[in-house]
User: Which sequence fits this backbone?
């Protein structure tokens, strides 16, 4: 097990390098050069030249990449590893690590809600295939899948916050309520719904087809034939096996979850990574955007790794 | 799959020839395209989707062409009007007609969607055919590249590209969506190429001395376009959503131009007083996405030559 995880971690290294190269190249496409923002009448050309030499901007691109890349990975102990924000001069490492807990809070809650809701829905739709329940679930899933997260966010905001006035329309905590859990849940409700509904749509469709496939297997028929009660066949034999492929979804849904988080966080002013990304694009804060993309890449890779390991843990057919 | 086969409609292909119901159809002579049409028409939702999509495309082509620049015309005396006969969807704060803006926005969004899909197809087909045809080291290299792109947090990368190349430009939006969305098309084309590479007609082409380039472009590619068409149709949905999201956040198409996303941009203030401004663009986006994905599903079933329509 440990060697498998290690091997997978090593396999992730070239992908991380690939992501870094792509992100680095995209940032190079920015017009002008990073010293442009210091250029003004009051800064002498010599100072600019010194800055260029100091930051190694006169070196060839591959060399620049290596020095950036090696510095980047010192972030656990080096607060300057990701540079300083163009906007407020704060170290990017700090800025990002301030936001990560809030994004995780939103994403993890949404994932839990997604699982709790979509797995029973998918099972129900599969067990009662072509029934009214199945038709309603499938239709809702199709519509939910087609609703872009910002449309969904606006819709929820309008109905539950403005019309019914049940939930707050922005922020993570009410003023003076920091650390108050019920208040946090109250603020979390709408963003989590906005983020979870799309995932629920995708997951329940997936769960349905996975369950349908398992229900046709010989061992399910055998279980029925030997007289096991229906519920036991369903939960002990079918569900356990139908859940396996869903684990892979955990890793696969991360990019869309991150995209959804960026939009949902912007609509509900949730102080997470996605909102920071949108703010940084607005203010052309390149060091922050670059670090967020790298951070997102790491999250996707780790998510996939986690899904693979989980799959291995629950599926006895997989050997390391 | 099973659902399709149980709900086959009456055979359209032969019904068209008319008056020969009694003829015993021992060897149904149907061309590939007749079969495709038959299978597609049997897919009720896909037919509805085709109709919806055609209507949307027609509206997006005709209305803005007929009305010209009227969608950008402001009129302060007519601001914030609720829906009426003169303005079927009302007007916004600066008195622009929301119906005309919606149609113009639909046009912009569809153009961006189609063009992004063009880039996706171009990159996906090129890399996929090279990868599948040559195999070996080249294939390995391209597939590792696909792995990297699949691990990218796509939306953040799109945001970064837009930040770097410039906000508010349609071309940048198209490039950003195109550069990040080609992996599915690439993998589908590669799979087809791997399958067809050893097919008899390809061997025959080789035996006749055709160059690799000719075999790829004249023999394998036309035979493997079905998955590309499906991926492209589904890609339209994703691209339209990506564009709308970007414009909604203020990084895509910005006023006075209109796009389905930027019509929803002022949701904060609109929600309080003029919710009617938000419903039409939202419904239109959902219609585009739904019809593109049903169309894609229908085409997937229809274009697959291995899937036969049962005669009885």
Assistant:
């Amino acid at each position: 097990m440990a060697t498998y995880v290690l091997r997978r971690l090593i396999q992730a290294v070239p992908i991380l390098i690939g992501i870094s190269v792509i992100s680095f190249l995209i940032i190079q496409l920015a017009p002008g050069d990073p010293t442009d923002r210091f250029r003004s009448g009051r800064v002498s050309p010599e100072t600019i030249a010194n800055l260029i030499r100091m930051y190694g901007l006169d070196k060839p691109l591959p060399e620049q990449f290596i020095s950036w890349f090696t510095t980047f990975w010192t972030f656990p102990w080096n607060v300057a590893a990701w540079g300083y924000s163009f906007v407020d001069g704060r170290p990017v490492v700090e800025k990002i690590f301030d936001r990560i807990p809030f994004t995780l809070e939103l994403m993890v809650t949404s994932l839990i809600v997604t699982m709790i809701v979509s797995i029973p829905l998918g099972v129900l739709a599969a067990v009662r295939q072509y029934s009214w329940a199945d038709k309603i679930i499938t239709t809702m899933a199709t519509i939910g899948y087609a609703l872009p997260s910002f449309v969904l966010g606006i819709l929820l905001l309008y109905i539950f916050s403005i019309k019914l006035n049940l939930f707050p329309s922005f922020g993570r905590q009410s003023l003076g309520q920091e650390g108050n859990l019920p208040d946090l849940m109250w603020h979390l409700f709408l963003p989590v719904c906005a983020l979870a509904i799309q995932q629920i749509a995708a997951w329940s469709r997936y769960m349905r087809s996975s369950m349908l496939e398992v229900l046709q297997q010989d061992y399910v028929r055998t279980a029925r034939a030997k007289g096991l009660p229906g519920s036991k066949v369903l939960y002990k034999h079918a569900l356990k096996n139908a859940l396996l492929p869903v684990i892979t979804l955990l890793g696969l849904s991360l990019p869309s979850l991150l995209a959804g988080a960026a939009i949902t966080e912007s609509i509900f002013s949730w102080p997470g990574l996605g909102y920071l990304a949108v703010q940084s694009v607005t203010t052309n804060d390149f060091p922050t955007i670059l670090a967020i993309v790298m951070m997102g890449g790491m999250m996707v890779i780790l998510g996939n790794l986690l899904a693979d390991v989980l799959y291995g843990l629950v599926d006895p057919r997989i050997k390391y | 799959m099973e659902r399709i086969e149980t709900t086959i409609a009456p055979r359209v292909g032969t019904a068209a020839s008319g008056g020969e119901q009694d003829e015993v159809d021992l060897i149904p002579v149907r061309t590939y395209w007749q079969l495709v049409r038959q299978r597609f028409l049997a897919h009720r939702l896909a037919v509805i989707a085709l109709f919806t999509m055609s209507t949307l495309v027609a509206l997006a082509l005709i209305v803005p062409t007929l009305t010209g620049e009227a969608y950008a015309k402001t009129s302060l005396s007519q601001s914030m009007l609720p829906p009426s006969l003169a303005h079927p969807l009302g007007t916004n704060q600066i008195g622009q007609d929301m119906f005309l803006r919606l149609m113009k926005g639909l046009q912009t969004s569809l153009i961006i969607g189609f063009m992004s899909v063009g880039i996706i197809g171009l990159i996906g087909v090129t890399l996929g055919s090279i990868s599948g045809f040559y195999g070996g080291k080249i294939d390995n290299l391209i597939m590792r590249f696909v792995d990297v792109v699949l691990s990218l947090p796509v939306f953040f990368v799109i945001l970064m590209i837009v930040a770097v190349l410039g906000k508010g430009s349609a071309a940048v939006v198209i490039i950003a969506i195109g550069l990040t969305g080609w992996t599915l098309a690439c993998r589908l084309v590669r799979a087809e190429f791997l399958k067809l590479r050893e097919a008899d007609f390809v061997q025959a082409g080789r035996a006749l001395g055709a160059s690799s380039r000719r075999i790829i472009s004249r023999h394998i590619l036309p035979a493997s376009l079905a998955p590309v068409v499906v991926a492209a149709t589904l890609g339209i949905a994703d691209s339209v959503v990506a564009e709308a999201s970007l414009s909604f956040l203020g990084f895509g198409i910005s006023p006075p131009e209109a796009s389905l996303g930027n019509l929803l941009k002022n949701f904060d203030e609109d929600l309080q007083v003029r919710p009617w401004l938000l419903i039409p663009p939202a419904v239109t986006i959902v219609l585009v996405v739904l019809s593109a994905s049903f169309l894609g599903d229908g085409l997937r079933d229809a274009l697959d030559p291995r899937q036969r329509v049962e005669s009885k």
User: Anything to note?
Assistant: Residues 245 and 261 of chain B are 6 Å apart (CA to CA). Residues 1-20 of chain B have pLDDT under 50 and may be disordered.
